[in-house]
């Protein structure tokens, strides 16, 4: 009897694993599609630049987990921030990432990015998208989507050719913080945010 | 009163006779005279008995073995020995492990060789297991968790930024692929304004291209670039042998297998491999002890023959002396085989020591025989009565010196003492039975040419006593600086490969084999002990099973999670064409590199290479670029599975070094180089204050230092006391006794001063020097003092000549031990030779005069 129960349990675990992954995959795909739709719409909208930037920023605010980005971007230096500086950092971050996103993927954007595939990356899902370029080629981008339970699935990183933008920017921020402190970083973000 | 007694009285009246006038000595002379008379009458039987004894001894000697375990040199009842034994029983791997050490110019070369060696050695005859941390699957996967958090962060950042570069190289491992991938990476870095990030790749590539241009081999160090490691590195493979306890060295099959693998291994340039660990050190120590002992023995026999000829001047007596010596050696070896069964690394030297000591009795007897042969009808009995008591006394004093260590805790030296003591008594017995028996059968041997002379300057010079006293007093000052080196490594041949390999490890503060240990009953106790140890000054680190778990794992795994897609792309992903790549040859890349500051060196190297390029060179370069690349991708692939490390997931080979049989070992690493005695003493003293149960190598060495120093003082005191009692019993005079002991004491000071000057500290092997010097030195003193009491011109008798030549044989024989590669044996030989030379000089210069002074006073 015990043996039968154990077998049944193992079978259930085995069968449920792909199901869980499929649900994760579906939610991640939905998040990526939403992000692609909204950011593409924002970047290609025939409105003023300010309105496009606001739309792009709003799209990222919906799809990105900024607290996750903050955690890694200023990990080692967080204690050197005052409350006011931290508040300013949080205020600037969406605009900074929106500018980064626009610079990386907005220039020469010929058509709406195409979602290609998903794959597991430890606790997260990577959603591969191909961004059409003006030269006829596509730029492969991986959205890293994490399940935040009650907050749903949110983007925590994006990668091109395996290079993590979160790590890339973290290194850049670390250098700035080491050299110029929080004020230097905030000034830099101010100059590079929309 | 029988015939012998009458002869004894006659001899007592003889001015040139040696016999002392004490009643006990007269009785002894009488007994020895009767014995020799008995032997003379039954010479054939005596020789036959010797023949049988020799055959039996040769048979017994075939079973003699050697135990190389130096930890058995001291009594197991000593506190530190008991603790060491308990540790060894609980954690036997430490004592039996063979350590293969790979030393290379960079991590890639070291890891490559380590991985290949691990594969080659595993499964070979005598190999139970191989644990190579740097290429072990557990550490390949989780090793990065053992880095500091910031270091791990930097490493992951480097890999993330280069993941497409790595993926590109993985997909095209050719020179063209390398150039194209580097070109693309440069384009991207230029676009992002981050060309400085490529500096490590450029620097490494520059070195490879420059070497290729010069026709040299220089494999690309991928770990240097991406793991941030640079400079020479050590890697270890810990091999647990299948122990064959029927063999002299139980790990011999494993060692043979490892040496076989190394002999056939195609070692890349810049990589050295050595093997060490207790079984290897012991095997090579035995080899160093035994390698030249045959030479020492042969050479000492040649020296003895020459000295015999100088002393006796007839071939017959020289041969008789050598026959007596051979008989002594064989019988002593037989006694050793029956008595102890297994020699140790010190007692194995008995064979050479006995050459020097065994011949002494024969020389004295034959010299007296020579002297008596021309004057007495019964020269054998006359010689026996004349020299027999002195020989008996000197045999007693030398035996006592040897046996002095038997009452100490130094059981290793006690074994040499037992064999040496027995050997001296055998030599005495041979001189008063075997030699007379042969002479009785061949009386012609008793007649010889005029005896040899002692060299001019040894005697009769008025200034000599004062010079010797001055020398002795000067040496006494310097002798106070002599020290005892208790580290067994100090005994070993410094050129032995296992010792050199041991030093590779000892020079690395984090890998030093000299570590202290404390055993705890519970994990909690082990944790507390390790925490407490870390607080002690001079402790570099303390670890227990719990410390094997990486700290800050949650943060580190978050960082790994963050970089995981980059790792995956580098390890298994398809490279993305992120730029328009144009460079296909080194020349194409050169122009682009010249435009960035970090690329100047590589551009220059590429130009040099282009100038020297040919197809063969391209092929070699291609190989050098990618030789170690698979190590990088294998490591990245393994890292994808990195996960939380718990005690249960640790490799068994690692955890059993820290937990075994329910006991937990705390490993304490010193900050200073504790190969230096003063550092070691301070380290152990501080730890012992906190941890009474402290054990491990350094604690054992310190314990041994105290025990052996104590044993040496005990042995010297016993030898001095014995020598004093024997001298007093012989001379019945305090001044006369001092006439023997003062020269010996001064010679002891000269020997100690010589040790200071020649940087030959006392060690496990040579601590016997002082007691033995006393024993042997007193012999010469007794002979000369006894003669001096009877003859005003002592240097005109046979005694100084016999004393001088017997001392010369001893010095020559002991001196040949100096040939040994084993520092303990060699220092024992050198110090004994110096000490005995000093003894002869002191005794000749001081004893006759002091003895005559004592007689005049009385």
SSE map:
The complex is a heterodimer of chains A (194) and B (858).
Chain A: H1 2-44, H2 49-63, H3 66-73, H4 83-106, E1 114-121, E2 124-132, E3 138-147, E4 153-160, E5 163-164, H5 165-191
Antiparallel strand pairs in A: 1-2, 2-3, 3-4, 4-5
Helix pairs in contact in A: 1-2, 2-4, 4-5
Chain B: H1 3-13, H2 23-41, H3 43-61, E1 65-67, H4 79-90, H5 93-96, E2 98-104, H6 107-121, E3 127-131, H7 137-142, H8 149-161, H9 163-171, H10 175-192, H11 199-213, H12 222-226, E4 233-241, H13 252-264, E5 271-276, H14 278-291, H15 293-312, H16 315-339, E6 342-344, H17 350-373, H18 379-403, H19 411-441, H20 463-479, H21 497-507, E7 516-520, H22 523-534, E8 539-543, H23 553-572, H24 586-594, H25 600-612, H26 615-626, H27 629-639, H28 652-655, E9 659-660, E10 663-670, H29 677-690, E11 695-696, H30 697-731, H31 734-757, H32 769-790, H33 798-816, H34 823-857
Parallel strand pairs in B: 1-6
Antiparallel strand pairs in B: 2-4, 2-5, 3-4, 7-10, 7-11, 8-10, 9-10
Helix pairs in contact in B: 1-18, 2-18, 2-19, 3-16, 3-19, 4-30, 8-9, 8-23, 9-10, 9-23, 10-24, 11-25, 11-26, 15-16, 15-17, 15-33, 16-17, 16-19, 17-18, 17-19, 17-33, 18-19, 18-30, 18-32, 20-31, 20-34, 23-27, 24-25, 30-31, 30-32, 31-32, 31-34, 32-33, 32-34, 33-34
Descriptive overview:
The complex is a heterodimer of chains A (194) and B (858). The N and C termini of chain A lie far apart (65 Å). Chain A contains 5 helices and 5 strands; from the N terminus they run ααααβββββα. In chain A, 34% of the residues are buried. Chain A is globular, with a radius of gyration of 20 Å. By secondary structure, chain A is of the alpha+beta class. Chain B has 34 helices and 11 strands. In chain B, α9 (163-171) runs parallel beside α23 (553-572), α17 (350-373) runs antiparallel to α33 and α32 (769-790) runs antiparallel to α33. The A-B interface holds A 72, 76, 121-124, 126, 137, 139-140, 142, 144, 157, 159-164, 166-168, 170-171 and B 150, 156-157, 160-161, 163-164, 167, 188, 192, 561-566, 568-570, 573, 575-578.
């Amino acid at each position: 009897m015990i043996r039968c129960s154990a077998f049944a349990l193992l079978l259930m675990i085995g069968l449920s694993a792909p199901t869980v992954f499929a649900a994760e995959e579906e939610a991640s795909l939905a998040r990526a599609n939403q992000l692609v739709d909204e950011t593409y719409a924002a970047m290609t909208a025939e409105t003023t630049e300010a309105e496009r930037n606001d739309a792009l920023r709003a799209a990222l605010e919906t799809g990105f987990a900024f607290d996750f980005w903050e955690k890694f971007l200023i990990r080692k230096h967080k204690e050197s921030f005052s409350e006011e500086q931290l508040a300013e950092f949080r205020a600037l971050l969406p605009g900074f990432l929106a500018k980064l996103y626009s610079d990386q993927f907005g220039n020469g954007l010929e058509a709406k990015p195409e979602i290609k595939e998903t794959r597991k990356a430890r606790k997260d899902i990577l959603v591969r998208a191909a961004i059409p370029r003006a030269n006829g080629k596509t730029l492969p981008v991986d959205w890293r989507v994490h399940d935040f339970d009650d907050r749903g699935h949110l983007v925590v990183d994006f990668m091109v050719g395996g290079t993590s933008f979160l790590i890339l920017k973290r290194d850049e921020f670390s250098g700035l913080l080491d050299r110029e402190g929080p004020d230097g970083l905030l000034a830099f973000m101010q100059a590079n945010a929309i | 009163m029988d015939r012998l007694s009458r002869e004894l009285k006659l001899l007592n009246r003889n001015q040139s006779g040696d016999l002392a006038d004490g009643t006990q000595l007269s009785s002894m002379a009488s007994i020895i005279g009767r014995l020799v008379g008995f032997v003379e009458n039954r010479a054939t039987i005596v020789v036959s008995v010797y023949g049988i004894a020799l055959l039996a001894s040769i048979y017994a000697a075939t079973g003699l073995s050697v135990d190389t375990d130096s930890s058995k040199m001291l009594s197991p009842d000593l506190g530190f020995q008991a603790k060491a034994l308990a540790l060894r029983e609980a954690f036997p791997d430490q004592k039996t492990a063979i350590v293969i050490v790979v030393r290379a110019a960079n991590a890639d070369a070291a890891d490559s060789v380590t991985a290949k060696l691990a594969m080659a050695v595993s499964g070979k005859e005598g190999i139970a297991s191989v644990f190579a941390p740097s290429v072990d699957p557990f550490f390949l996967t989780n090793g990065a968790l053992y880095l500091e958090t910031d270091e791990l962060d930097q490493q992951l950042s480097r890999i993330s930024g280069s993941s497409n570069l790595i993926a590109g190289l993985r997909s095209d491992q050719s020179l063209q692929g390398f150039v194209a991938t580097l070109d693309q990476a440069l384009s991207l870095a230029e676009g992002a304004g981050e060309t400085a990030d490529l500096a490590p790749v450029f620097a490494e590539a520059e070195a490879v291209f420059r070497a290729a241009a010069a026709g040299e081999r220089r494999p690309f160090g991928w770990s240097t670039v991406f793991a941030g490691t640079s400079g020479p590195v050590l890697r270890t493979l810990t091999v647990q042998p299948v122990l064959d306890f029927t063999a002299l060295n139980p790990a011999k099959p494993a060692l043979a297998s490892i040496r076989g693998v190394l002999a056939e291994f195609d070692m890349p340039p810049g990589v050295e491999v050595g093997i060490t660990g207790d079984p290897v050190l012991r095997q090579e120590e035995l080899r160093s002890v035994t390698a030249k002992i045959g030479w020492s023995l042969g050479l000492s026999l040649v020296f003895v023959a020459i000295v015999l000829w100088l002393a006796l001047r007839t071939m017959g007596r020289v041969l008789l002396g050598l026959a007596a010596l051979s008989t002594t050696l064989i019988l002593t070896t037989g006694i050793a085989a029956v008595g102890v069964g297994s020699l140790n690394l010190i007692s194995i030297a008995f064979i050479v020591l006995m050459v020097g000591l065994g011949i002494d009795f024969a020389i004295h007897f034959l010299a007296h025989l020579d002297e008596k042969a021309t004057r007495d009808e019964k020269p054998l009995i006359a010689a026996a009565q004349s020299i027999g008591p002195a020989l008996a006394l000197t045999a007693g004093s030398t035996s006592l010196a040897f046996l002095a260590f038997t009452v100490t805790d130094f059981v290793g030296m006690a074994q040499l003492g037992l064999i040496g003591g027995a050997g001296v008594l055998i030599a005495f017995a041979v001189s008063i039975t075997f030699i007379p028996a042969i002479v009785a059968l061949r009386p012609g041997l008793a007649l010889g040419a005029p005896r040899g002379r002692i060299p001019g300057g040894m005697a009769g010079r008025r200034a000599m006593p004062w010079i010797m006293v001055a020398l002795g007093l000067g040496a006494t000052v310097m002798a106070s600086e002599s020290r005892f080196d208790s580290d067994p490594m100090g005994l070993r041949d410094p050129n032995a490969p296992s010792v050199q390999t041991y030093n590779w490890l000892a020079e690395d503060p984090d890998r030093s084999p000299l570590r202290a240990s404390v055993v705890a009953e519970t994990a909690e106790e082990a944790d507390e002990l390790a925490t407490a140890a870390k607080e002690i000054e001079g402790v570099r680190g303390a670890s227990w099973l719990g410390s094997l778990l990486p700290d800050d794992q949650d943060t580190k795994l978050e960082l790994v999670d963050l970089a995981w897609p980059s790792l995956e792309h580098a390890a298994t992903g398809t490279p993305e064409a992120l730029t328009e790549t144009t460079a296909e040859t080194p020349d194409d890349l050169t122009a682009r590199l010249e435009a960035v500051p970090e690329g100047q060196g590589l551009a220059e190297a590429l130009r040099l290479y282009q100038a020297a390029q040919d197809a063969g060179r391209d092929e070699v370069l291609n190989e050098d670029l990618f030789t170690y690349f698979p190590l990088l991708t294998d490591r990245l692939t393994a890292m994808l599975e990195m996960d939380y490390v718990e005690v249960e997931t640790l490799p068994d080979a690692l955890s059993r070094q820290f937990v075994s049989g329910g006991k937990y070992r705390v490993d304490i690493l010193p900050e200073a180089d504790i190969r230096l005695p003063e550092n070691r003493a301070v380290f152990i003293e501080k730890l012992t204050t906190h941890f009474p149960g402290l054990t491990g190598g350094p604690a054992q060495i310190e314990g041994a230092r105290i025990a052996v120093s104590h044993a040496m003082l005990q042995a010297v005191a016993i030898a001095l006391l014995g020598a004093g009692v024997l001298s007093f019993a012989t001379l019945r005079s305090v001044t006369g006794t001092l006439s023997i002991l003062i020269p010996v004491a001064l010679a002891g000071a000269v020997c100690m001063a010589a040790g200071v000057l020649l940087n030959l500290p006392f060690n496990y092997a040579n601590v016997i020097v002082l007691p033995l010097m006393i024993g042997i030195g007193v012999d010469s003193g007794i002979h000369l003092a006894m003669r001096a009491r009877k003859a005003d011109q002592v240097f005109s008798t046979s005694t100084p000549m016999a004393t001088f030549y017997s001392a010369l044989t001893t010095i020559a024989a002991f001196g040949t031990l100096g040939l040994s590669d084993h520092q303990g044996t060699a220092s024992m030989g050198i110090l004994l030779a110096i000490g005995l030379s000093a003894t002869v000089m002191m005794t000749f210069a001081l004893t006759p005069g002091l003895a005559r002074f004592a007689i005049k006073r009385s």
